[in-house]
Amino acid sequence: MGTKIKKISPRGLWPLMQASFALCVVMASPPSASAADPRDRALVERMQQVFVEVAERLKPSVVNISTTQRVQPSRRQTEPFFRGPFREFFGEEFFERFFSREFERRSLGSGVIVDAKGTILTNNHVVEQADEIQVTLVDERTFQAKVIGTDPKTDLAVIRIEGAKDLKPAPLGNSAKIRTGDFVIAIGNPFGLSHTVTVGVISATGRTGVGVTAYEDFVQTDASINPGNSGGPLLNIDGQVIGINTAIVASGQGIGFAIPITPAREIMEQLIKEGRITRGWLGVLIQPLTPELARQFGVKAGEGVVLGDVLEGGPAEKAGLTTGDVIQAVGGKLVTDVRGLQRLVAAIRPGTQVAVKVNRKGKEVTLNATVGQMPTEEAAVVTPQSFERHGFAVQDLTPELREKLQVKEGGVLVSSVEPGSPAFRRGLRPGDVILEVDRQPVKSRQDLLAMLEASRPETELLLLVQRGKSSRFIVIPPTKG
């Protein structure tokens, strides 16, 4: 049962707008000006009371999350600094004790209580790899929490505390109704400062390409969000949760991002029910339809995505899709970009048959595909999806692409890089041409696949990459250890 919040009627919104304008006038008036109209002051006070009431009612629904992770020093990263006279002075035994010692890594975040059982919605990165999770309520009661389920692809997690009484769950709203310019309130624990309240507006909706998660559809806000706010709620003036605060732009001010609560609720409910997320999958490698590619394929930019490769045995291959098709619609819904297609297919229940409309060499073709289940990371290691372990996909170079990119021989084209993945963080980008892996030449996509499958998850990969007319080395970090 959610906390009962007093709503503001539509008739009450216009006075609030008047009050906002009146407040600006009062603040801009010089000291010598006459006192503000009492009616304006009353409107300002009513507006102020809205924020005060929401903060008072929702603070008990917001929790402080403290995590502890036990780690050991990495020999690969640390040992090179402990050589020569330094090592001789302290002795070998000292270093063996150092590398066998266990250290604790601590972090802070926020979360929001969603039911009376102690279920809490937060970000995956708040609790990821944590050995211990401690939850502190507004009244300073503390509880150990356990993870119910996580979804790294949307950066959401569900945890639960046991034995807590008198919990006040937050009411969940409908993020489909939010508008740019709407007032919002953020509550969280920035820098460990418990239950901090900030106010702002919705700056934009539908933000993608932020580089935080695989599936992005963020709400942007200028309500102040700082480290420690992650996982806390973004509220409307009715006191309903409309988003989960997730990320900020470090180099900017007033630019924060929240996951809309409507899709977040769907993820949360599936995690509670099944402990994991099941997503639809077509088994294709896709790339954006750039203006250059659009001209080559005879379509308009933004009217689909290019099918760079079809994975053997996957749903797309069985349906008859081929490399070079431009996917323009799935299940009757238009496809305009890579992210949109990924979200669209992922939301389809595995086993569902959908119509896939493609442009094939200038002709419209509709094929029926039975959506499969997205492979787990474990399955990806032993199938053609091995590229996903490092966060990128490639395709073979056609003679036309080879001539355009000025690649004489060998190499494969990077068709997509998952934002936030190891490859993305190290600088690999779509359009790069991988020439070598660990100083061994790459001749084809299958060649690279064999190299990646043979590589050990705990080792780094050294890539020689051509970008434009120059080449560079990129080191992809280990995916385990």
Key traits:
Pdz3 Domain; 481 residues; 4 domains; 14 helices; Thrombin, subunit H; alpha+beta; 26 strands; 6-stranded antiparallel beta barrel; single chain
Can you walk me through this structure?
With 481 residues, the protein is α+β, with helices and mostly antiparallel strands. The chain folds into 4 domains: 49 residues, no CATH class; 218 residues, Beta Barrel (Thrombin, subunit H), CATH 2.40.10; 94 residues, Pdz3 Domain (Roll); 100 residues, PDZ domain (Pdz3 Domain, Roll). Helix content is 25%, strand content 32%. The strands form 5 sheets. A 6-stranded antiparallel barrel has the order 1-2-3-6-5-4. Strand 2 and strand 3 form a beta hairpin. The longest helix is centred in the N-terminal third of the chain and has 21 residues. The N terminus is likely disordered.
Q: Give start-end ranges of low-pLDDT stretches.
A: 1-19, 377-386
Terminal Cα separation, in Å? Answer: 42 Å
Largest sheet: 6 strands, antiparallel, barrel
Q: Helical element count?
A: 14
Strand order of the largest sheet: 1-2-3-6-5-4
Work out the radius of gyration.
26 Å
Q: Helical content, roughly?
A: 10-25%
Look up the CATH topology of the largest domain. Answer: Thrombin, subunit H
**What is the average of the pLDDT values?**
82
Please state the second-level CATH architecture of the largest domain. Beta Barrel
> Structural class, please?
alpha+beta
Strand composition percent:
25-35%
Number of strands: 26
- Described by the principal axes of the CA atoms, the overall outline is globular
Number of domains: 4
Highest-level CATH class of the largest domain: Mainly Beta
